[in-house]
Write a structure and sequence with these properties.
alpha+beta; 11 helices; 14% strand
């Protein structure tokens, strides 16, 4: 057995000893032992005295020292046991205090009770609508209705007063399908050949709870082939993919930004962007500062019949963005992730609509897929 194994074995033995001392059995055993020692000592005082003097051959002075040593050892054992109990009590108390301090925040981030009822209504409506989506126009209208449902759910989850929530769906396009959108590309000043694809946001794929979101204009965002590397990694010069929907697409993961005012700081600290790209993005969010103070991004993946986790590495078909002017819960990352997981069934229905829609033709700028988007 090596030195490492020996140290581990000794640590385990010490742990077992502490567990025994701190247990009710250890305390009871020490109490019984003390009582039994005192009882036998009082009953057989003379016999014990003769036996010790005969067997141990101790002088009166040595016997006194032995007594003192026994007292000290007993005191040390009792002290050790009490220290173990106190230390464990402090650990438990610290955990309790930490949990108690998190309770208010946990309560704040939980959805409003009305959310579950609203989710049932929205999901039933969209699920029943799916069977009637048989052509391009109806499918585009279905996407709009689903987006309105997400907005209603975000508002119910947050229990906002008169907060403004909105949602949009950006479709990931590659190859020839992306070409019509290159003239709508924003925050990109590099060679188009470096792009893996673009995220296109058709105007009709932006919605409020009561209907279309007319404040959003059609545009596209770049998704580069080389997404870059974190500066904390060896040789990393920063990310070359924009925060938000492009980052969610490139990394195939949920993204959350509680303050759009800090996106410029993120780009300068973690990104590898041209100054013109940063300034354009800064101006965009400055122009929409009253409508968008924070947002979350959920990758929408093609539905699968396999029994797999929802975060399986299936390439995103697009990204669902939900943004707000102010909110009580969804600006918290934990709360936002909970919302994303809770609405996963509705995301699957949206994904199926998008698959069917893309099988007919991808969206093109300035060409509506639907004649008149349905309002809920």
């Amino acid at each position: 057995m090596g030195d490492g194994d020996g140290a581990i074995a000794r640590k385990r033995m010490l742990q077992h000893a502490e567990n025994l001392l701190a247990s009710s059995w250890g305390g009871t055993g020490l109490t019984i032992l003390g009582v039994a020692t005192g009882l036998f000592g009082s009953i057989y005082a003379n016999e014990l005295k003769d036996m010790i003097q005969q067997w141990m051959l101790l002088s009166p002075r040595s016997g006194a020292w032995l007594f003192i040593i026994c007292v000290v050892v007993t005191a040390l054992v009792v002290f050790w046991r009490q220290r173990v109990i106190d230390r464990r009590r402090e650990v438990v108390q610290a955990r309790f205090d930490a949990a108690a301090s998190e309770v208010p925040e946990l309560i704040r981030t939980l959805p409003d009770p009305a959310f579950l009822a609203e989710f049932g209504i929205v999901f039933e409506k969209v699920a029943m609508m799916m069977r009637d989506l048989t052509d391009l126009q109806s499918r585009a209208q279905g996407v709009t209705v689903a987006l309105q449902g997400f907005v209603a759910l975000a508002s119910a989850f947050d229990a906002g007063r008169d907060d403004r929530f909105a949602a949009n769906l950006m479709v990931y396009l590659t190859g020839e399908a992306r070409e019509p959108w290159m003239s709508k590309l924003k925050f990109f000043e590099r060679d188009p050949k470096t792009l893996a694809g673009v995220l296109a946001m058709p105007g009709e794929f932006a919605a409020l709870a009561e209907g279309a979101d007319d404040s959003m204009r059609e545009f596209a965002l770049p998704v580069p082939t080389d997404v870059g590397r974190s500066r904390s990694e060896p040789g990393g010069k920063g990310y070359r993919v924009l925060p938000g929907a492009p980052f969610a697409t490139a990394r195939n993961q949920f993204e959350h930004y509680s303050q759009t005012s800090r996106l410029e700081e993120w780009c300068r600290k973690h990104g590898d962007f041209l100054e013109a790209e940063i300034e354009q993005m800064k101006q965009h969010f400055a122009d929409h500062a009253k409508q968008i103070t924070g947002f979350l991004c959920i990758p929408i993946r093609e539905p699968s019949t396999a029994y797999v986790a929802e975060d399986e590495r299936r390439a995103p078909l697009g990204v669902l963005n939900i943004h707000w002017d102010r909110c009580d819960r969804l600006d918290n990352p934990h709360s936002a992730k909970l919302f994303a997981k809770a609405t996963y069934p509705l995301q699957v229905l949206l994904a199926q609509m998008l698959v069917d829609l893309m099988s007919e033709r991808p969206p093109r700028p300035d060409a509506r897929l639907s004649a008149n988007p349905t309002h809920s």
